[in-house]
Amino acid sequence: MQTPAAFDYERATSVDGVIASLQRLGPGARVIAGGHSLLPMMKLRLATPQHLIDINDLDELAYIREEADEIRIGALTRHVDLLKSDLLARRFPIFREAETVIADPVVRNRGTIGGSLCQADAAEDLSAVCSAVKASVVIRGAAGDRTVSMEEFHVGPYTTAVGEAELLTEVRIPVRSGCGTAHEKVERRAGDWAIAAASAAVWVDGGLIQDAGIALSAVGLTTIHLSRAEELLRGKAPSEELYAQAGEIASADCAPTADGRGPVDYKRHLAGVLTARALARAGARAQNKEASA
Amino acid sequence: MNVTITINGEPVSRDIEPRLLLVHFIRDTPGLTGTHWGCDTSNCGACVVLLDGSPVKSCTMLAAMAEGHEIRTVESLEVDDVLDPVQQGFHELHALQCGFCTPGMLMTARALLDENPNPTDHEIRTAISGGICRCTGYKNIVAAIRWAADHEATARQGVAG
User: Fold this and answer.
1) Chain B window 36-65: which residues touch A at a Cβ cutoff of 8 Å?
2) What is the pLDDT of residues A95-123, one digit of tens each?
3) Do B90 and B68 fall within a single domain?
4) Which of A35, A126, A245, B96 is deepest in the core (most CB within 10 A)?
5) Across the interface, do A9 and B64 touch by the CB < 8 Å criterion?
6) Using N-to-C axis directions, what is the helix angle for B85-92 and B102-115, rounded to 10°?
7) pLDDT digit string, tens, across residues A49-96
8) Spatial distance between the Cα atoms of B146 and B117, rounded to a whole number of angstroms
9) SS3 A11
10) Which of B37, B47, B62, B114 to probe by mutation at the A interface, max A CB count within 10 Å?
11) Are B59 and B120 within one domain?
12) pLDDT confidence of residue A179
C-alpha cells in the first residue's frame, strides 16, 4: 500500500487566496490540481509537502478562449477539454493530436495543462507542444502577473520559472496567419510515455517559411527546443528535403539516455524521423491555409 | 478533518487524515469493496469510479478532494435485482474471468454509453484504454460493451414505439 506522508489540506477559493496561502505556509506547501503527477510522487515519498492547496474549485482558471489575437487557456483546463475544444483544434490541431496520445481518457479527465507544464517532465507532451507554438505563460505572485516564454519557463529537469508563492494561471498562444501544426509520438503501448515525440509549428507566407517552432519530448533531461533547426527553416521554401535536414539536426541536438524504452541511437533516429514527419504535416497544413486564404 | 462525500446517492461523513485516498474511503467507510484497489499508480483502472458522471481513478485522488462531489461505484449499477446493460453484456459475452478489472471496466463503459450511446469499436477501445485486463483479454470486453449499447438502443426504440 502506497501512502503519502502526512500533510495538511486546504481548498482554495480564489487565486489570491492561493498566493496568500503559499506565502504564509512557505516552501513546504504545494498546489494540487489533477494530482496525477504529484500524488504518485507523494506515494513514493519523492514529494513530501507539508501542506496541500487544492485548486480544483477555481473554475475561473478553466477556459479556452480567443482574445486579442491570442488563444488563452486557463491553467486548470483539463486534458479532456483541450482534446474536445473545436476552437483549439481549428487554430492549433497539434493540441488534439497530442491529447489523443497523452495518458488515457480516464487520466485525461483529471490532469490539467497547468499541472503538466509545472511538472516539467521532459517526457511530457504538452510542454513540447507549447514550446512549438511559441506559447508564453502567465505566472501570478503577490506583486502581480508576469509573462514568460516557454524557453524561459523551462529552467531544468522538473524545474520551471514558477517561483515560491507563485501560481501559473494561464497559457497564451499568439495567433498568426499561415500557421500549421502537428504532433508525432511513438510509444510502446497505448497511454505510455513517449519513446520520443516531436511537436512542430510552421508559419508560411508568400510560399516561404516565415517562422518555425520545433520541440522534442523524452529525448533529454528537459523538453528540447530545436532552435538550430528552426533557424534553418526560416526564409526557405517548404520541401521534404528541408524537413529531412531539420530532422538530422533533431537527431544531433537531442540528448537521449538509454532505458527500457530503447537505446540512444534508436531514440536519436526516432527524434529525427518524427521531427521531419511533424514538420511535413505542419507545413502542409500551413500551405493549405495560405492557399485558401 | 471531516469530509462528506455522496456515494451512490448517500452522503457519507467521516473524520479522515487528509492523505486518505478516495479508493480507501470508498472501500473502508461504507464498505463498498466492489471498487478494486489495484496498481496504486493510476495505470490499471481497477479503481475507476464516476466523479460527477466522469470516470476517474480513485487511487489517484484524495478523499478530501471528493468532498461535495457525487461518486458512483459499481454497486450502483444493479437496481432492484436488474443488472445494468453493461453488467448483463459482460455476463452474456464472458467479458470477465478473474473479475479484478471488471468494476473499473464497467464504470468506464457506463460513462462511455451515457455520453456516446452508439460508439464504434475504436471508440470503445479508446475509452477502456485506461484499464488493464490480464486474463479475458479485451475482445470480449469490447463485444460486451457493444452488446450493452445495442441492447439500450433496442430498449429506447421500444419506449419510443
Assistant:
1) 40-42, 45, 48, 51, 54-57, 60-62, 64-65
2) 999 999 999 999 999 999 999 999 999 99
3) no
4) A126
5) yes
6) 130
7) 999 999 999 999 999 999 989 999 999 999 999 999 999 999 999 999
8) 10
9) strand
10) B62
11) no
12) 97
The domain spanning residue B11 has which CATH number?
3.10.20.30
Of B21, B41, B45, the CB nearest to A106: B45
Can you list the alpha helix ranges (DSSP code H) found in A26-176? Answer: 38-43, 79-84, 86-91, 94-99, 105-108, 113-119, 125-132, 150-153
Cβ contact B19–A3 (<8 Å)? yes
Cell 482554495: give the residue.
A12
φ, ψ at A112 (rounded to 5°)? -120, 160
Same domain (yes/no): B94, B61: no
Domain that holds residue B139: 85-160
Q: Residue B92 sits in a domain of what CATH number?
A: 1.10.150.120
Nearest-neighbour CA in chain A from B129: distance (Å)? 6
pLDDT of B161: 57
CB < 8 Å from B in window 41-70 of A: 42-43, 52, 54, 56
**B71 and B97 co-located in one domain:** no
Helix (H/G/I), strand (E/B), else coil: B135: coil
Domain termination site, one of B25, B50, B76: B76
Count of beta carbons in the 10 Å neighbourhood of residue A181:
26
Whether residues B51 and B7 share a domain: the answer is yes
* A189 Cα to chain B: minimum distance (Å): 10
- Distance of residue B55 Cα from the nearest chain A Cα, in angstroms: 6
Q: Are residues B116 and B137 in the same domain?
A: yes
Three-state DSSP class for residue A221? coil
A110 inside 8 A of chain B by CB: yes
Residue B35 and residue B100 in one domain: no
Q: What is the pLDDT of residues B53-92, one digit of tens each?
A: 999 999 999 999 999 999 999 999 999 999 999 999 999 9
Q: Of B59, B76, B93, at which residue does a domain stop?
A: B76
Q: Per the structure, how many domains does chain B have?
A: 2
Write down the pTM of the prediction.
Answer: 0.96
Cell of A231: 533557424
Domain architecture of chain A: domains with CATH: 8-54 (3.30.43.10), 65-174 (3.30.465.10), 179-287 (3.30.390.50)
